[in-house]
What does this fold into?
Amino acid sequence: MLLTIVNVVSAGWVEGLGNADVKGTKKKHRIEYRYGKCTLHLYSSGAITCTGAKTEEESIDTLMRGGYSLTGHRVRNARVVNVVAKGHLGDGIHLSTLYDVLSENDFDVRYEPEMFCAVVIRNEWATSIVFESGSCMVMGAKSVEDVWRGVGEWLDMAGVDTGRIPPSDPLPLKIPHDKVMVELR
It folds into this structure.
């Protein structure tokens, strides 16, 4: 499975903002400011977030540089707070079988097809959502490495060969096209 990072969100704090004159588009409870390919959100509390980055470095750098450009003050306590990725497992995922395999092995997994058409898998690193089409979303990770850890754990349990590729490389999924999740062990 190849996972693509779609968003890295970072957050920080701007001290001494007070009634400083800041540039940007004023929204109801925040100021929105485009900086490069990212968007900064500055709140009246002094909290500032950066969305739209594709790497952790880009997110933190944009938060620090863009925050200073926006306010004239340094951003403190900058950190990555969410990494979102998407991927595809293959066609014809049998969600009930995936749910059964993971729940039998004490994973925090939810599947209520009447309420939501996907299996939701939570672990200490991330939350994964797997759809019957084979699409997969991963969110809530605090780093790109946590995305790989979170997905790798349940892929291993479901019997998917990850090839033991390091977290910095794309994670392939080796499933023959004629196989479906129900046949994996």
About this structure: The chain is about 20% helix and 35% strand. Strands lie at 4-14, 25-26, 30-35, 38-43, 47-53, 75-88, 108-110, 118-122, 127-131, 135-141.
